[in-house]
């Protein structure tokens, strides 16, 4: 089994077809077991994964077999030799996911003492300071590859447990949030390279998204943590945006993620690369189509509809945009244009058809939100004002695009309590939060001044990230990998025309900061060092 690909494929075949080996083919069984153990301990990461799953699938004494792998690997972990860590971390993660009753508890001490304190919270090597935001896989340092696998191990461990009784999920989510707040430099020692930081931001955002697929963890993800995860789709690194969007679409299209995660695609209106916007639009079309078809074929109760009906993405989108770190002044016309672009990016696809009077339903949702408060900061006047302003921009767009929205909504929308308070009795909010002049400016589509596109590479108040300049460079070919199969979006024509010239020959992944932005971390995000104290 010298060829890695052949070995991996052979193990997968045994995993899928070898259920009778133990009883019918004892000779093969006795030969196969040591090979699987060897691959789980010292094979490639893919071989290790397949070997663990194969043992779990075809052997009756799998507890004994997995323990014989888990115990020596967990005792021999050494962060000083990161190149020898990757396969053990893969095996340990999959073992704890497949057999949580047996390994969840011993894994907790491994997580606390090694994964977090020894590996993730230390930088043993110094990254190359070449300014690149992304490097090919073969150039990523072993230490960072090990850290990425450590983050995946945390997720697999939690997915195996499927409960938060020990509060380990809360601690993990705080750690992942800290990774995003610190831009991927968890230790904040500035020893890690920009490209390695990009890898770790992607790993952290993907991990939160993976945990959100398990209901017991989705419930404890705070709005702030959801927003940090969402903003990865506006990362300064093209490849981070691209891979994160692909992962997001893959989970949504399988109906694995809660509906609010579809709202993240609205932020793609800010992407400076035309093909990225086109890809996001295609993802929205596909996801909305799948959800509508599923509802038609599966009649369901109202509470189930809340998680599937695509129109119910509107409240999540409004709340997400109200907390966009770029949206700092609720009367700034340029910022409101960005908000309008993001809203229309989603609403255009939703409003293609007026199924079941959906236009009036979406209008009613925006109106109802104005009767609530922002559950994230219910007593902060500025926060609520921003929320109501986004509602008014949404109403402005819906009213201008559809004459059908003025009909009575067939049903009263239910708003998510995690994001909005219950409407107060006798509370009336008929104030208009955007002036008539601003309304006209938003609807006429007057082009923005050159160079203002919103902060595509967000100077996130959440992550403290600097913007980057889209400059002419020589690395476009290696840094921008465009999916040529997708047709450009038909929406946002004026925006695309104004930005198309600057999209040619750009080299996004070079570090060219324009200005230093002083930022205030998102409220309720503790200092990075405090994130690991409860593991």
Automatic annotation (TrEMBL):
Residues 471-492 have a biased composition (Polar residues). InterPro entries: ARM-type_fold, Pds5. The keyword Transferase does not apply. The keyword Cell division applies. Pfam families: PDS5. Residues 464-513 are annotated as: Disordered. PANTHER family: ANDROGEN INDUCED INHIBITOR OF PROLIFERATION AS3 / PDS5-RELATED (PTHR12663), SISTER CHROMATID COHESION PROTEIN PDS5 HOMOLOG A (PTHR12663:SF2). This is PDS5 cohesin associated factor A.
